[in-house]
Amino acid sequence: MTSCHDKSDVHEIEPIAVAYESFCQALEALHRAQHDGGTDHETGLTAGQAARAYYKSMAKVLRAFNAPNNWRRDDSAKVPLPRLVGFTVGDIFEDLVAGSLPLNIKHLFFGRGRSGIKAVQRQAIAAAVRYVEAARLELIRDTRPIKRVAKEFGVTEKTVRLWVTENPEAKELLRRFQNQPESGSMLERHMREDARHYRNSRHVKTRK
User: Are the C-beta atoms of 129 and 164 separated by less than 8 Å?
Assistant: First the structure.
């Protein structure tokens, strides 16, 4: 697979070359954060902050690629899109179409300065928020989703309401897939699985 060290397809045109270099640095920082306990030891960025920088740098590469001065009159690009960026975008959409969120996107939901929540807990909370929103959108037949989530996660209903309030990104992303076949049962299954992981990470039982 193409790596950041392979720059054979990125010519020395400033906008794309600079943007791609930033993308590679952001990708490496994100990998370090994911494998060093949630914080990149070199930059000090949390996984959420590193994910935000990663996607921002990817957007800059795409904007540079689509800039008018990068295109000839015959609609051919002067500088091609770096292969690693193309592979990455493709992988993201394959995950989304399959109904799963890439881990890097999950980091965005809970990456704003929180250090006391484990990665597995952040992912589980995102699943809880999506379940509540799915019930509101009538993707799931549950008239009391907050109560259901509280019971599955072993927390109070007040805690679940706080999760929903503090994580609008999870709700916004869900709206893009509300017409996906069988998305309701998939979201419910993911919620139950993530609830189990959440309880195990905190050593708690379901609430009665």
Answer: yes
Distance CA 79, CA 67 (A): 11
Last-in-domain residue among 69, 97, 125: 97
Burial of residue 153 (number of CB atoms within 10 Å: 0-12, 13-18, 19+): buried
Find the domain containing 22 and state its range.
Answer: 14-97
- How many CB atoms are closer than 10 A to CB 1? 6
121 shares its domain with 93:
no
Tens of pLDDT, residue by residue over 114-145, are 444 566 777 788 889 989 988 888 888 899 99
CA 144 – CA 152 distance, rounded (Å): 13
CA dist., res. 198 & res. 66, Å (int): 42
121 and 90 together in one domain: no
pLDDT in tens, 143-178: 999 999 999 999 999 999 988 887 776 666 565 555
In a domain, 1, yes or no: no
pLDDT in tens, 52-65: 889 889 999 999 99
